[in-house]
Every structure is written in structure tokens, then in C-alpha cells.
Design a protein that fits this description.
Layout: H1 18-30, E1 35-36, H2 38-47, E2 56-60, H3 67-70, E3 77-83, E4 96-100, H4 103-127, H5 141-151, E5 154-159, E6 172-179, E7 183-190, H6 195-201, E8 208-212, H7 218-225, H8 229-234, H9 247-263, E9 274-286, E10 289-292, E11 295-300, H10 314-318, E12 323-326, H11 335-345, E13 353-356, E14 362-363, E15 366-369, E16 379-384, H12 391-401, E17 404-409, H13 418-435, E18 443-445, E19 452-454, E20 459-460, E21 480-484, H14 487-496, E22 504-507, H15 516-523, E23 531-536, H16 543-556, E24 560-565, H17 579-583, H18 586-597, E25 600-601, H19 605-618, E26 627-632, H20 635-643, E27 653-654, H21 659-671, E28 684-685, H22 692-703, E29 710-714, H23 741-750, E30 756-759, H24 767-775, E31 779-781, H25 784-812
Parallel strand pairs: 12-13, 12-16, 13-15, 16-17, 17-18, 21-22, 21-23, 23-24, 24-25, 26-27, 26-28, 26-29, 29-30, 30-31
Antiparallel strand pairs: 1-11, 2-5, 3-4, 3-5, 6-7, 6-9, 7-8, 9-10, 9-11, 14-15, 19-20, 19-22
Helix pairs in contact: 1-2, 4-5, 7-9, 12-13, 15-16, 16-18, 19-25, 20-25, 21-22, 22-23
Length: about 800
């Protein structure tokens, strides 16, 4: 068995020669390639301080090697591998052969490989063009074979190493790669030729794990890796398996990869190259040595970093002292008119509004000006509600006259269609150019932005009529912000769950300028916001990295971040990428990076809205651990709660009640003459005969037990003993009665430090009860399994957030 607590990271002892690695990459570039051959990848590993790879010798294509040259490897066998900058997956094309270590056998296999590999690879490409690199895509037949053959440099003769075990799980894949959204990422897991199959077939986190390298070290990544099947096999933690590698070796490997990734990173301005992908698949193990059996590396020259936007101006966007609107019709209720109506309905003063429309001096008591340059004040916010073809001209005027600090672009048709891509590209270029000037120029929200609701700023620019989407207006304490790339998703959630009622609802649209990362950078420092909900479809270049860094800072400062990522199709495997891209595809990388930063990642739409409501109402509750007490008068419900305390995303425990709790519960049941029908245990099935008071007393007693961290209570709406229907106070089933659960439980829960969740599992007849409890500030679910799932995810996130806070505190000290 292993003891992770006693393992010390080897990172500080690593000696990585970045100068020689850079020279290695430079040599390849001078030869016209941005890939390293396998033996060069092994040389990179040596320079990184890793253990010595196997001996190799390149048999150059067209040469006449002597017997002495062919017999330089020790052992009875050798491995021959084709060498070509265009062939990454050698096994698939017949480019790997194990032969007897005899000159004639090696020579024959080498010659055969030089001819058979082009034929095999050409056949594969012609069946599926995506299996080949770009340079081969327009070739076929003999020309394709000739092109493949001309790129082959020879065969690499590699020392054959006999692994300690060839059993399943005894090979390790480790890789780093540069992702467009999150920068450098490390992944590790079950290696070998079937590694993608393992990743698909095993539960999440068992076959492979991934993390951003910018905010993790070797030891922390090792902690993640310890949850995989691969680690359990390598460490001898499965039946019949013995340990074949030390924890220190694995940590050293991870540390080296992370250091290389962070040096050859797109955000390191001093790096002469960016490593696109560096992969070892697999590492095998011989006598406690980590032996790389295959490796690949792709790299590129660095590109310019995205322009920095003056995102501090988001304050002007969310709390504007003045608002201008372009696109208001004076004759019909168009989008501009709806926006104006909603702005006024939210309490914004007419004197601080300007309508930009030629031909009139005022409209409905609001000042009008003919054009942007005629504005009498510099606006904080300009809402542009015109067709997309007019947007570039208006943007140009705003920039030229420095007319507004922020601009909201409502129009679609700016990048969503092929026809509008050029228009959007030109628009983004002009906006980015203005950000390079002193002061940074205006910032732009959208395009394709549904609008913003800002209760602190007293305005609402959604172009949805109030009759279609009623909102809770007026001043009250609101502690959440909801940022969504899809405006439709945002308003649908609010329509379904009016109790969400965030302080800010921000439709960010196409991110032609302001990004999700910018929004999180601003909101993380807003003292009035405790909870941030984010719906994302994609990130701009490297903005995923900026986003997760802001998530981490928000969580460390005590905020909750609830996240949903749309678009989960795995990144396709291509012939120019290694196994790493297939194992840690776009969605997995995104989910891993956000979780690593402390965000709570929802898996479904309904889970997202449940988490967002729950986090708003439980944010100030104390999370002491993950021990759950479950109570219900319905046996199926109590058992269902216990059945749902674990998944791939969370882990809770059923609390063990103290003897004092058991005695107190028994006394309550005795007083209600239920003691002969109920066994006091967790989950607690208190019988359908339990009335409102019994449910409330059980919650109160359990909340005082130090062994209990959270409570889920089924409110048994169909029980004849419960007051759960809407009606007159005199009605025996009416929840308006002062003795009903709706009257006594909310005040009790409000004063309990621990999370308490209610469940009303019943039909539409019980909607009024749910509304009454919800309006009283409680968190109510309509099924016990969903209640436990969502609560468990939230608690897991809060506990991880506390770890990040503690780690930050230790570093600060």
C-alpha cells in the first residue's frame, strides 16, 4: 500500500536544460520540420532530467549499413520503427516490428518496411482522408505512395526492453499539449495502443486525468492520478499485482512535464518555441525503471498574445450613469422600443437616457440627438439595436469620437454565418486596434447579445417584452450574477425558475470583444456578488485559461462558481496528433480545468439551475463535511437518498447519529406513538403517520448533532398526517395553517447553520406548497435523488474551495 502523505515532490531536484532543448527544436526547424523524430524526443527527455530512455540507432533510408552497425544493440531482439515527420501512429501503418537481433533479420525487416509502410498508409488515407496530414489530402494512388515514401527518413533501431509485467494496466501514457482555449495541459493514464478505448469504456477519471499546467505541480497532479486504475495497477494495489514503480518516479515525471509545458507555453514571452504536443505512450517498467517505448513531439513558433481589454470598464456597463440607444422606432414596437420600455420599467431615470435618432428632439420625454458625434455627454453605455450591416459604421463612429465607455451590440449576423464572418473579423480588428491606444477605448458586449439586466444599475436591456418574461423589479438583496453565452438559455432558466432572480443577467453573445474571462475577472472582485453562474459554448484564444484563473481567485475569495459547458463532442483523432488529444478532448480539458480551479460543473441544464438556486440560498451556510442525514416518511424516498450519495462527480457519507440524537428522536417518536413503527437509523424512515411537527422536530434534532453536516428531509405531501394543500386555515390539510410544515420549517431552517434541503415529491397539486416554501427562502426539490445529487455536488465544491483557500493561505504565509 502507498502512503501519499510521505511522498515529497522531486520538482525542486529536477535539472532541465532548456537551452539544449531549444537548440534541439531549432535544429529540427532548420531542417524544415516542426516535429521531432522519436530518437530526438528521447533526447529531449534526457535533457529534461528524466530517466535514461532505451538505446537507439537510426538506419537512414538508402544507406548501406554494415553488420557491425546493425548489431550494436544488446539483447536477443530489437525493435524497428519507421521514422517520418508525417507518421505519428506507427503501429497502424505497419511501422513497428520486433525482430531477432541478427544483422540479416534486421536488414530484411528494414527494407521491407521502407516499401510496405507507404502502401499501407496510402490505403488507410484513401479510405478516410482525415487519417492523413494536410499535405497528403489532395493526393491518391501512386502519387500518394510516392509522397509518403519520400517523407520516410529511415527506421529507428531501438533496444528491446522486457517489461516486468505485460498485464493490463501496466503501461502509462503521459503527455502535454497546447490547447487553443486553456493553453498548456497535462494528462496521464492507461497507456498503450488501446488507450483511447480505455478512456471511452471506463468511468470518468478512472482511465485518464488532465489538468492545466499553469496552476498545478507534480505532486498535486499525482494526487489526481492516484484515483486512476493505472496508478492502482502500477502501485500494486490490486489483487495479484506487485508495485513496479515508485511514487517519487511518477511525481518526478509529472513535474518535468509540467515544467517543460510552462516554459514552452504560449503565455511565456521568453520562449522561442511553443510545444504543441509532447507525448510518451507508453512508459513501460523494468526493474523499477521508467522506460519510454514511444514518443512524439510537435512544436511551433510563438504567436502574439491576444490584446488586453480594459475590462475594468465593465462597471460602466453594469452601473451606467448614462445610457444611449440607437435603433428605436417611433411608430412600432421594435427591439429598440422594447429595450427602452424595459429600461424605464426597471427604474432608470429618463434624464440620463439619450436616444440617437435623426429628425426629432425628444421622444416620450427623452432627449434625442441625430448622431453619435452630436451627443452632449460621454455615455457610460450605448445600446446598438440595429441590423448587423449598420454595426461596423456605428462602431467606427463611437471609436472615432470616444462617445461611450461601453457598447452593447444586440444584432446577430456578426460571425454566425459564412456571409458575416468577414464583417465580424473586420469589426474585431478595429476594436482590438482601439484597445492599444491610451485608455483602451470603449469595450463592446456582443455581438448577438440578448441584453443585460442589472438591478444594481437599475436597467434592463433585454428585448423580450415583460409580458413574455415577467421579472422581479425593485431593490432587494441579490447575491448572484448569471453570465451566459446564449441569451435564450439565460431567459429560459429565469422563466422556469423565477426564484433565481440574480443581481446581474449578462448575455455575452459572440464575444467579439468582451469575453467570459473578462466577465469573471470583474465579477470576482464585486463585493456584493457571492455566486456566479456561467453558461459557456466556447472560449476565445487562451480565454479559457484567463477564465479558470479568475474562477480560482473567485473561489479563494469565498464565492461559488457554477458552470455549464455546451458542446461536448469529443475532439476527433487525426493523424497529426497523438493519443493525448483523443484522451483529453476539448470538453474533458474544459471540465477538468474548471473543476481544478474550484468551479462546480453541472452536467445538465436542470442541474445547472438547481445548483444556481441552491448556492444562492446556501452560500452563508457552514459546510463542515460531507456527512448526510436523510429523513422521510416514505420508505422509497429515504432509501433513494442513501442510494444517491456517490457518483463520478461527488462522494458523500451517511452520518452516524450520536447516542444523544438517537435518544432525542426516539422520544419524539414515542410522544407521537410512532416508536413501535420506526427504527432510528440513517436514513430515517419516520413513517407516513408522522405529522408536520414530527418532521420539523427531526430536522431540529439532527441539526444539533456534530456528526451531521447536511440534512435532506422529505416533506411527504401525500401523507394524510401532513398539511400540504392550499386552502383555508380551517382545512385540516391546508399549509396556510400556523402548525403546517410551510409555517414552521422555514424559520427553523433559516436559523440552522448547516444546509437543510426539502423534498416535495408530488404532482401539480402540491405546486403551491413548493412556491410557499421557496418564497420563504428554502431550497426545495421535487425528487429525493436529485436533491441528494445536487447537494452533494455543491458540498464537494465548497470543500474543495476551502482547500484552495487553505493552500493560498499557506503560500501567503
Amino acid at each position: 500500500m502507498t502512503s501519499k502523505e510521505n511522498v515529497n515532490s522531486s520538482s525542486s531536484q529536477l535539472s532541465i536544460n532548456f537551452d539544449l532543448i531549444t537548440k534541439l527544436l531549432n535544429t529540427a526547424e532548420e531542417q524544415g520540420r516542426y516535429t521531432l523524430y522519436e530518437h530526438e524526443t528521447y533526447e529531449l527527455l534526457k535533457l529534461s532530467g528524466a530517466e535514461t530512455p532505451p538505446r537507439t540507432h537510426l538506419i537512414v533510408k538508402g544507406s548501406k549499413p554494415s553488420d557491425e552497425e546493425l548489431c550494436t544493440m544488446p539483447g536477443e531482439k530489437v525493435v524497428l520503427k519507421v521514422v517520418s515527420p508525417a507518421i505519428i501512429h506507427k503501429t497502424e501503418v505497419g511501422g513497428v516490428k520486433v525482430v531477432d537481433n541478427k544483422a540479416d533479420k534486421i536488414r530484411s525487416a528494414w527494407r521491407r518496411m521502407m516499401y510496405e509502410v507507404p502502401e499501407t498508409y496510402a490505403s488507410i488515407i484513401e479510405k478516410n482522408v482525415d487519417h492523413g496530414p494536410e499535405i497528403y489530402k489532395h493526393l491518391s494512388g501512386e502519387k500518394l505512395q510516392q509522397a509518403i515514401a519520400s517523407d520516410i527518413r529511415g527506421a529507428l533501431m531501438v533496444q528491446f526492453m522486457t517489461p516486468d509485467s505485460e498485464a493490463f494496466g501496466n503501461e502509462l501514457i503521459v503527455g502535454i499539449r497546447n490547447t487553443r482555449e486553456f493553453g498548456m495541459v497535462i494528462s496521464a493514464g492507461l497507456g498503450g495502443t488501446d488507450t483511447e478505448l480505455y478512456a471511452k469504456r471506463f468511468r470518468k477519471g478512472q482511465a485518464v486525468v488532465a489538468a492545466s499546467t499553469i496552476s498545478i505541480d507534480g505532486e498535486s497532479f499525482f494526487d489526481l492520478f492516484c484515483n486512476t486504475i493505472c496508478y492502482k495497477k502500477l502501485a500494486g494495489l490490486t489483487r495479484g499485482q506487485r508495485r513496479i514503480v515508485t511514487d517519487e518516479q511518477i511525481i518526478e515525471c509529472f513535474s518535468s512535464m509540467i515544467d517543460i509545458a510552462n516554459y514552452y507555453s504560449p503565455i511565456n514571452k521568453d520562449a522561442l518555441y511553443v510545444i504543441e504536443e509532447l507525448e510518451i505512450n507508453p512508459f513501460a517498467f523494468t526493474d523499477y525503471l521508467m522506460i519510454p517505448l514511444d514518443g512524439m513531439c510537435r512544436f511551433k513558433k510563438p504567436e502574439g498574445l491576444p490584446a488586453i481589454r480594459p475590462y475594468h470598464k465593465i462597471r460602466n456597463l453594469l452601473r451606467p450613469s448614462s445610457i444611449g440607444i440607437i435603433g428605436i422606432s417611433t411608430t412600432k414596437m421594435n427591439f429598440g422600443r422594447v429595450i427602452l420600455s424595459n429600461i424605464l420599467a426597471n427604474g432608470y431615470e429618463k434624464k440620463n437616457i439619450r436616444i440617437i435618432r435623426d429628425g426629432i428632439q425628444s421622444f416620450e420625454g427623452i432627449s434625442c440627438v441625430p448622431d453619435v458625434q452630436s451627443l452632449d455627454v460621454k455615455l457610460d453605455l450605448l445600446v446598438v439595436a440595429v441590423g448587423s450591416e449598420q454595426v461596423p459604421g456605428i462602431v467606427g463612429e463611437v471609436i472615432a469620437h470616444n462617445a461611450s465607455e461601453t457598447v452593447m451590440l444586440i444584432a446577430g449576423g456578426l460571425g454566425e454565418t459564412e456571409e458575416s464572418v468577414k464583417r465580424a473579423s473586420e469589426l474585431m480588428a478595429s476594436i482590438q486596434q482601439c484597445h492599444t491606444k491610451e485608455g483602451g477605448g470603449p469595450i463592446f458586449l456582443g455581438a448577438n447579445c440578448l441584453g443585460v439586466v442589472s438591478h444594481p444599475g437599475k436597467f434592463d436591456t433585454l428585448f423580450i417584452p415583460d409580458v413574455k418574461l415577467p421579472k422581479q423589479r425593485g431593490d432587494r438583496r441579490r447575491n448572484a450574477a448569471f453570465v451566459s453565452q446564449s441569451g435564450a438559455f439565460m431567459i429560459t432558466r429565469l422563466s422556469r425558475r423565477p426564484e433565481l432572480d440574480p443581481a446581474y443577467m449578462i448575455s455575452i453573445g459572440n464575444q467579439n470583444d468582451l469575453t467570459l474571462g473578462d466577465m469573471l475577472r470583474y465579477l470576482k472582485d464585486d463585493p456584493e456578488i457571492d455566486v456566479i453562474g456561467v453558461y459557456a459554448e466556447g472560449f476565445q484564444d487562451l480565454d479559457g485559461l484567463a477564465f479558470t484563473e479568475a474562477v480560482r481567485e473567485a473561489v479563494i475569495s469565498g464565492k461559488d462558481v457554477i458552470f455549464y459547458k455546451a458542446g461536448r463532442t469529443p475532439e476527433g483523432k487525426t493523424a497529426t496528433s497523438g493519443h493525448t488529444a483523443s484522451l483529453a478532448g476539448d470538453y474533458m480539458v474544459c471540465e477538468s480545468c474548471v473543476r481544478q480551479a474550484g468551479g462546480v460543473v453541472a452536467q445538465t441544464f436542470s442541474q445547472f439551475e438547481d445548483l444556481l438556486v441552491l448556492s444562492q440560498r446556501l452560500h452563508n451556510k457552514k459546510i463542515g463535511g460531507n456527512r448526510l442525514a436523510a429523513v422521510s416518511g416514505a420508505g422509497f424516498e429515504a432509501v433513494g437518498m442513501a442510494d444517491n450519495i456517490q457518483s463520478d462527480d461527488f462522494h458523500m457519507r451517511m452520518a452516524a447519529f450520536s447516542s444523544q440524537t438517537e435518544q432525542a428522536l426516539t422520544q419524539v417518536l414515542t410522544n407521537k406513538r410512532l416508536d413501535r413503527l420506526v427504527v432510528v437509523k440513517n436514513p430515517l424512515d419516520i413513517n407516513p403517520g408522522s405529522d408536520d411537527e414530527t418532521h420539523a422536530k427531526a430536522v431540529e434534532i439532527l441539526s444539533e448533532d456534530d456528526n451531521v453536516d447536511a440534512i435532506v428531509v422529505g416533506l411527504d405531501p401525500l401523507s394524510p398526517a401532513m398539511r400540504t394543500l392550499y386552502g383555508d386555515d380551517s382545512d385540516r390539510f391546508s399549509f396556510t395553517n400556523s402548525e403546517s410544515i410551510a409555517s414552521i420549517l422555514p424559520d427553523l431552517v433559516l436559523n440552522i447553520e448547516k444546509p437543510v434541503i426539502g423534498v416535495v415529491d408530488g404532482g401539480r397539486l402540491y405546486d403551491p406548497l413548493v412556491d410557499a416554501l421557496t418564497d420563504s427562502g428554502m431550497v426545495i426539490f421535487r425528487s429525493s435523488d436529485n436533491a441528494v445529487n445536487v447537494l452533494a455536488m455543491y458540498i464537494e465544491g465548497r470543500l474543495y474551495g476551502e482547500k484552495l483557500q487553505q493552500r493560498k493561505s499557506l503560500i501567503g504565509e
